[in-house]
Amino acid sequence: MNVLSLFDGISCGQLALDRASKKYNKYIASEINKHALEITKRNFPNTIHIGDVNHWKDSGCKETNYSICTDNIDLLLAGSPCQGFSRCGTHLGFNDKRSKLFFRFLEIFYRVKPKYFLLENTVMKKEWEDIITDYLNVSPLKINSSLFSAQNRERLYWTNIPIDKKILEHKNIMLKDIIGEYKGIYVHPRGSSKGGLKHYYGKCPTITCSSWQTNFFIVDNNNQKRKFTVEECEQIQTLPIGYTKGIANTNRYKVIGNSWTVDVIANILKGIR
After folding, report:
1. Are 25 and 159 members of one domain?
2. What is the domain extent for residue 183?
3. Distance CA 185, CA 196 (A)
């Protein structure tokens, strides 16, 4: 199986394929964030990197001289930028230049004609969701990462991979399994310096690229506030502990917050035959 991953991030797609026991011959990745690339190159040195998705029509990547038109693509993965669609983002929808990258995905989707595809994005206005659905001719699944992890993280998944509903059963992973006993989470609403103690019934709010620093903190049983550690964030996203090591912690937090919850993707990929 040949896999093409657009907006590959820290290559959670490869982690998910391994966990789903899906073998692949080539994993071709498009990513431009230097910190994410460093993590992928260390953990998956055989990855074929093709650079900026906007240059996919070029004859070949300057670094590897590889063109995505070279091989048949069996699986196309993508998690296009969500800032324009997110409830906490710009609310510009497809008028946000980052949201327009969906159409780069679409160009490649039409060109490589994969047997299977999976597109992930945030929960968004129905009108924007419907546009994507009309192009892909498949309705999205709304899956909360809380099924497989210790956080609430609702995302939309457009895919033609057959999914056994049994895989979407709750695995009962709680935040205390990662951080131990705690009193609650102290939450700062976005744009406010004031906050309060919240109880999340065993799950933490969505890990984002900035939430570790500005939005919420663990409150222990002695009423002491602290940030989540990098390793705790990795576990909340179901990444291997230490997977993002080798770069500054600030950048580790950011790439973790922008990544997929690996076990969600792995359970979807189990449907590939």
Report:
1. yes
2. 176-252
3. 8
